[in-house]
Design goal:
single chain, 318 residues, alpha+beta, Jelly Rolls, Arc Repressor Mutant, subunit A, 2 domains, 13 helices, 11 strands, 42% helix, elongated, transcription regulation, DNA-binding, HTH_AraC
Length: 318
């Protein structure tokens, strides 16, 4: 698979919460940061979202906003209005005037990601993805938004199931949707043909004995230029990125509990189970078996384990 598909596969995203958000008149609410990726789709009307250190962003009908890691933010009918602190909720919410038909309608909520690798994988994504309706309308993304809008406004049997599946498809489409400039992390690196070749090679052959020089050759660049561009795009050097990715793959295998340590070591490029265990302990602060018992359904060695929830905490946007 390609790097983005690999990351999505390890994240195992699912629509955890989705709820209608309606409002009328003047209104403003704000939220503290919460441990869940938040999203908002504007179905009717408009609103303004503001994050610390950023200019307010206008959201219009058909716009999609995704926050892979949800920071503090405010949502209001106009920029600069006083905002009331509220807590994320899983049920429908109404802001502003309580009587009369709403002049603003949105679908908001959160996605659940697999917990063990979420911090690493989310760090490779932009902190904010905004797809305006004007840019996404003529694409498959726009078609998905239309389908989701129709489903939300309907009363068809199976509505909740269809809504969840459409949201999951929308998440993947949003992550791979082609934007012009301004991208950071993996999405930005994948738009760079040279970096994309190196990333593709690493992900297609994880256990290979990669070096910076060999990856630079794949990218068609000098060693120094490649290392500098890679570090600027992804915030770490290519060998460090590879090491982190190998650990992410290893953690996923440990969570499944269906492979021996020796097999995992072989698949991610370590000479032996002991070499892998040493590297894993150094990075994770515990042996692979302990990690599997604490976080997964089982471990490669036959010892009892403590079940733990595989998903990050739920929250909602709106």
């Amino acid at each position: 698979m390609d790097p983005l598909s690999d990351i999505i596969a390890l994240l195992q995203p699912s629509a955890a919460i989705s709820k209608p958000i309606t409002a009328r008149g003047q209104w403003g609410v704000r939220y503290d940061a919460h441990d869940a990726p938040g999203f908002t789709i504007i179905l009717a009307g408009e609103a303004w979202v503001a994050f610390e250190g950023r200019a307010p962003l206008r959201l219009a009908q058909g716009d999609f906003l995704l926050m892979p890691s949800t920071p503090p933010f405010s949502l209001s009918s106009e920029p600069g209005l006083p905002c009331i602190l509220v807590e994320p909720r899983s049920e429908a919410v109404r802001h502003g005037d309580r009587s009369g038909d709403p002049d603003f309608v949105a679908l908001g909520g959160s996605f659940a990601f697999e917990r063990a690798n979420a911090p690493l994988l989310l760090s490779l994504l932009p902190d904010l993805i905004h797809i305006p309706a004007a840019q996404g309308r003529a694409t498959r993304f726009g078609q998905l938004v239309d389908m989701l809008s129709d489903e939300c406004l309907s009363s068809h049997p199976g509505k909740e199931l269809i809504t969840r599946r459409l949201l999951e498809m929308l998440l993947v489409e949003a992550l791979r949707w082609r934007r012009v400039g301004g991208e950071s992390g993996l999405l930005g690196a994948m738009r760079d043909p040279a970096l994309a070749r190196a990333l593709q090679a690493m992900h297609q052959d994880v256990p290979a004995p990669w070096t910076v020089a060999r990856l630079a050759s794949v990218a068609g660049m000098s060693r120094s230029a490649f290392a500098a561009r890679f570090g600027e795009a992804l915030g770490c050097g290519p060998i460090e990125y590879l090491a982190r990715w190998r650990m992410a793959v290893a953690k996923q295998a440990l969570l499944r509990g269906d492979k021996s340590l020796g097999r995992i070591a072989e698949e991610i490029g370590y000479d032996s189970a002991s070499a892998f265990s040493t590297a894993f302990r150094k990075r994770m602060g515990c042996p692979p078996g302990s990690f599997a018992r604490l976080h997964g359904r089982g471990a490669p060695d036959p010892v009892p384990h403590i079940p733990a929830s595989p998903h990050i905490g739920h929250g909602a946007t709106g």
